Amino acid sequence: MNLRTHISKQGTLFFAGRTAENNEELIAQVKPTEVVFHTKAPGSPFVNIKGAPQHGDLKEAAILCARYSRDYKQNKTDIIIHRFLGKNIKKSKLMKIGTFGVRNVKVIKVKKENIINFEANPAKKGQLMELLK
């Protein structure tokens, strides 16, 4: 898998897709109780919080999802994110690669300022290696 990885400020591992094919790989490894994010608009990575989220992880994962979305890259505005559990993701044979149906969605609005702050202060690289030891 060539997924984007991110370690939250709390030390939680996040996975994010880079392409439609990556999103397929990401969703295939999501556990039913894990939290997943995607923008309301098409064209974003799915972001998966591995395990139980810590305080602050939901907001950080939503910002990560917004940051790499087509919607943010094109519009540089606030972004609407959908949050749902792995068990609420469905795929039919008629859906394109990287496309999924979801239910029981919770909506999060990510402010442009939060994305800008995230870009200026990303999590420290190298934390992933420490976490995996």
Question: What does this protein look like?
Answer:
The protein has one domain (4-121). It is 32% helix and 24% strand. The chain contains 5 helices and 8 strands. The chain has helices at residues 20-29, 57-67, 70-75, 112-120, 127-132, and strands at residues 4-7, 13-16, 35-39, 47-49, 79-85, 89-90, 101-102, 106-110. The protein has a 6-stranded antiparallel beta sheet with strand order 1-2-4-3-5-8, with helices on both faces. A two-stranded antiparallel ribbon has the order 6-7. A hairpin with a 7-residue loop joins β3 and β4.
Total DSSP E strands: 8
Spell out the helices and strands N to C: EEHEEHHEEEEHH
**Strand arrangement, major sheet:** 1-2-4-3-5-8
Helix coverage percent: 25-40%
Sheet-strand content, in percent, reads 15-25%
Largest sheet: 6 strands, antiparallel
Rg over C-alpha atoms, rounded to the nearest angstrom? 14 Å
- The total of helices stands at 5
Q: Distance between termini?
A: 19 Å
Structural class: alpha+beta
Q: What is the general shape?
A: globular
Oligomer: single chain
Residue runs with pLDDT of under 50 for 5 or more positions: 125-133
Number of domains: 1
- Give the averaged pLDDT, no decimals: 89
Write the layout of secondary structure elements.
Layout lengths: L3 E4 L5 E4 L3 H10 L5 E5 L7 E3 L7 H11 L2 H6 L3 E7 L3 E2 L10 E2 L3 E5 L1 H9 L6 H6 L1
Antiparallel strand pairs: 1-2, 2-4, 3-4, 3-5, 5-8, 6-7
Labels describing this entry:
133 residues; 24% strand; alpha+beta; globular; 5 helices
Can I get a quick summary?
The chain has 133 residues and is α+β, with helices and mostly antiparallel strands. The chain has helices spanning 20-29, 57-67, 70-75, 112-120, 127-132; strands at 4-7, 13-16, 35-39, 47-49, 79-85, 89-90, 101-102, 106-110.
